[in-house]
Amino acid sequence: MKNKVVSLEKAMECINDGVTLMVGGFLNCGSPIQIIDAIVAKGVKDITLIANDTSTTGIANSKLIASRMVKKAIVSHIGTNPETGRQMLAGELDVQLVPQGTLAERIRAAGAGLGGVLTPAGVGTDVSQGEATMTVEGKEYMLALPLKAEVAIIKGSVVDTFGNIMYNGTTRNFNPLMATAADVVIVEAEKIVEVGELDPSHVVTSGIFVDYIVGGANNGE
Amino acid sequence: MANEKEVIARRVAKELRDGDVVNLGIGLPTMVADYLPEGISIVAQSENGMLGVDAAPEAGKEDPDLCNAGGKYVTAIRGACCFDSAMSFSIIRGGHVDVAVLGALEVDQAGNLASHIVPEKMVPGMGGAMDLAVGAKKIIIATLHTTNGKHKLLKELSLPATALGVVDLVITEKAVIEVTPEGFLLKEIAADTTMDDVVRATGADMRVSPELVYM
Fold it and tell me: Which residue among B4, B6, B38, B47 is the active-site one?
């Protein structure tokens, strides 16, 4: 099976100005922080960021916000990063807030070849204003459209060289969903192992979704 | 006198049944786990992707791969389980959570909930609140009765809604109030307050249960 381990520099060639970028993780847990740091170092501009949140000050996604690299953020929560709120209220950053379960389903739908999902979350609130709604078996739902990206950067706990991924604890969150919904998927591995070392029953994300692997034992190569 | 938040957390804990799948919101609701009555154990769900959340770890024993939805380190009960965000919200929206204990900015007599935005002042985003509010079988609001003397229990929300017609029970430091099709029903009152005080602190009419008791 193809060995997809590359240097961080090689992986960064995919991430350029104007990119629509999914970033896995939930408040830093399961976030690909080395790749994010590399994006900051490269100075990528006008990113459309799709993520659960903009993290907490000083780490992970918050660095993209602090460096003003993001022009639009599609996220469920920004309350833990005051700078995101400041930029939004000052009109410097376009923030689209999406209910967390809807965000997950929109990403899943894109990766699963669905035209969207019908969700009850947000019906009757500002979130459903102007959106298509539908009544099914007497209950009202709103249509949530698929959400894709050009590049997804995700984090895996143990990754084999083909890109099969195992996630420890709560690092899983949005990572396996985003792995299915982007043209190019880069996984930052905590640890890299040879193909065959992961028990197939423990693999959550198949290597078929992954294009590049960085980090792990080859960190810094 | 016990502090107000502790009074609320203790009373909410009494609503939980052994084996309930419970989502405890950030802040005051998280405290509920500390006051579960003897013999009651719950399966705590955290929307970042875990069932069986347990207390914070001892200093020095934190596992950076095990956090709750507030980003705080947690431990796992025996038999805990981790999953992705789509599964987490399938559990939430699919009616597999027995009780969600949430905070609130406002609740009105129709059971409408406002908890996620004060326009142009506080815009943290809804996170999982909209999904939890429509998905959990029972919604308990754990909140102080007023904020700096300002009513939170109202005839009609003044803030944008997080979800409509979802609140079942409101538990404050002063009272336990059920949301019925006829509006608020006062069921319990704190021993250190008076009926007048509760009425003054509530911005909507309340009926009083014939079985009114002290909290």
Answer: B47
